[in-house]
Please model this.
Amino acid sequence: MKKSIAIIGGGSAALMLAAQLDENKFDVTIYERNAAVGRKFLVAGDGGFNLTHSEELEKFISRYTPSDFLKNSISSFTNENLREWFSKIGIETFVGSSKRVFPIEGIKPIDVLNAILTELKRKNVVIKTNHTWQGFEDSSFKADITIYALGGSSWKVTGSDGSWTNYFSEKGIEVLPFQASNCAYEVKWKEEFKSLAEGKTLKNIAIKCDAKERKGELVITKFGLEGGAIYALSPKIRSHLNDDDFATVYLDLKPSLSLEQIRDKFSARGNRSIKKLLIDRLNFDDTQIELLKTLLSKDDFTYLEDLAKNIKNLPITITSAAPIDEAISTVGGISLNEVDANFQLKKIPNNYCIGEMLDWDAPTGGYLLQGCFSMGYCLAQHLNNN
Ligand SMILES: Cc1cc2nc3c(=O)[nH]c(=O)nc-3n(C[C@H](O)[C@H](O)[C@H](O)COP(=O)(O)OP(=O)(O)OC[C@H]3O[C@@H](n4cnc5c(N)ncnc54)[C@H](O)[C@@H]3O)c2cc1C
Model:
């Protein structure tokens, strides 16, 4: 006789899990509080739907915090496997210039979701929308096996609001407070700089917090800084903000040149002003120059040795993270100590948790979705084979 599986929450992790479960062994029902599944999946698709990243496996796995938590899942269902699976359900993908993986032109996020839903229909997965799980005593969700895929706690409008935490705490399960990740960070810019630089992009930079460095782009906003490069430093920045209420990041405005090469470029200055020197020799634009001016003392900006050093290692003080609801993802949620290697709750057998509701972190760039998909895939394999 088939066993019943209840999947609570209808996001990326849940959809992949349902798509991989053996329909000959299980009757699968997804319960979703919203009128439709996959809302956050669709939001993630706005402005570039990067489903995964094409990076080689070892490096890929190193992007996760903690990196060993998802090692088995990602190795069992890799970025390549994900692309093959999407291709099988009619969604072809391509690798963009940033090495991120996107659906090919003409395929919209809703088409990707519909292709997954068609696959679920083929596998007789039942989807019950407008069903809000209200705790372990809620008998309307009873099944032989229950899997929670309730998401994190940002973009509450998508249904992922973290309102489920008490149900788990009441069972003695450790739930960590949610915190923003992959979010903008506050820099207390001077008013004059804000009016000059708001909305401007710093391209081809590298940014560092402790020993972690990321190359890419940054956008200067009224609030501070945002963009892929700084998002990737979220775990380090968060740790400093938690401990000290501030974090210092170091910007390299010219990663393609060494300090020595910058010194060389500054030699034979002639009668150029500093601004003219930066434009002529380093090809700097107004935003880069204004950034140096606003952050450096007059002496540091005019003394070429200090200027060169700061171009390679410009300290910027971060004073807070953006509000949690605006973050692309959250950390916190169910402590990883509470689940076994197959994501089963150690305290409640036959109950599992997957996806962003668990306390792990990854940068944007496809790593979050891949993490959720890989967990869904691996849990399905575990259940299919036991
Ligand atoms: C703006 C934005 C852009 C993003 N861009 C990217 C990107 O480019 N690449 C990338 O890899 N990732 C991206 N992400 C992150 C990615 O979308 C998420 O990490 C991922 O969707 C999380 O999947 P999940 O299945 O764990 O949870 P979710 O997709 O959040 O799904 C959880 C579901 O559970 C439901 N639910 C919650 N509580 C209950 C309840 N009590 N009863 C019933 N149902 C409930 C919710 O309504 C929701 O549908 C982005 C996220 C955002 C917000």
Notes: Residues 262 and 308 are 6 Å apart (CA to CA). The two ends are 14 Å apart (CA to CA). The first strand starts at residue 3 and ends at 8. Residues 185-321 form one domain.
